[in-house]
Request: fold
Amino acid sequence: MSRIGDFTRSAFCAAYKYSGAVRAQEWLARLRGCSFASVLLFHRVTDAIPEDGITVGEGRFRRICRMLGRSFHVRPLAEVVGIIRSGGPVPNRTVAITFDDCYQDNLPAARVLAEHGLPATFFIPTAFVGTDHVFSWDRGLPRLPNLTWDDVQEMVRMGFDIGSHTVTHADLGAATTADAEREVMESKRILEDRLGRRVRWIAYPFGQPTNLRAEVVPFIQKAGYEACFSAIGGFMFAGRQDFVLPRFAVPGFRSPLHLELHLTGCLHWTYALRRRLGLRRAGAADLSSSMEPCLDSPAARLPPSGALLKV
Reply:
């Protein structure tokens, strides 16, 4: 997007926020019984390479942390999943933070989170920890080291949660059934042996609908995971019992203010309008349906769970 486009978006977001429209929309949504939480997804936090679809710069990350600490209830993943599944009201602006892939820059990012008192869960592909293995999409980039097991232990001591991201960052949509079962079982065993604590969550690599076959989900449940996280954008609505849950990838949001407004659920109409006018950027995620369950019905009449995530 051009600088003029970025400026226009920022000006619109600022005017929308400070006009009072956001608070009014939030109040009306809760009056209708619409109660939801969000899970955020980060990968890399570094200035070593330019920002891209999985990279957030260090300064921007600090600004996001300040915004989240100031404007949202950031809770541990276990607490957020528990609230959603209980069916009870979700505290307004409830958010959980997650990271994927075990880049070593996640350790200083964890320290920044700790400075702001923000909990997070880090999803680890165990075959990469403490090795020089390079993800295929990183070839040709400056070296981006992986976390070591000492790094992961330090993150645990800081109070952060660790989840599975399979052993080899496997595509569970392409792997054989036997390989997929081995990936989810073995990664959990390795993490629990190394860390001496139960691993409750898995995020499946690549995170799109085609990257997880439906027949693999029972193996994930059999392994003892309590939920599986995608990289498909979407809100988690109170009362949902979905096993596969959505996350919003943070690098796609142009500024902390854009992210803030999106997480309130108040921008759905702008996404829908852009889609109707053909203004949505090529390849951009379609977020216009993220709030559809809240638009005209109370939470008690939400559509079936498969309406938000189909795997």
